Amino acid sequence: MNRWQASMAHGARRCFRTSKHCATNTHIVLMESGAVIAQGEVATMSLDPHLRSIIGPDQVGAIIDGSVLGLDSASGLTKVRVGHGDLHVQAKDLAAGTPLRVQILARDVIVSTQIPERLSVRNCLAGFVTSIQDDDLGGDLVTIDIGGAAIVARITKAATRELSLTPQMKTWALVKSASLRGHSFAGPITSAASPDA
Known about the structure:
- This protein has five helices and twelve strands.
- By secondary structure, it is α+β, with helices and mostly antiparallel strands.
- It is globular and about 50 Å long.
């Protein structure tokens, strides 16, 4: 890796690892040997395979834009509309309608093929599988469309087989609210996301 590539790698890692850059960046361009190899909005680029070797396996996931619906007084968590579902995150003092960007790491997503019941997990997002790709760590990265937004789950190949996962299959993505601590940032909305969506 030359100095230019190292600089680009550093920039990509910084974008996906720090709240300041996660919240303020709207577009990312990846270059190699002076040529553009990938570019797009943050949400799209967070799913790009080119990033895996740059940001490291622990940072693989999705960045999605949502809109604050309000505070859930029962749980003390803030409810955020993302895609066709709602996330409960720890983000205080945000008015309804405030744009919120959420980073959901693939390692923190659980996949179910049945409607989950009686679980402590606060976030359950219905969607369908759009792709299943080999992960660099020997598992699978499962991309799930949750209604105009996409998230990624890292699961074992054994889980993929046992769940008989295939593209277009109905699934539910479960995410613990605790795993989103420090991964929610007030920032620009680059895709349509509103309480009325």
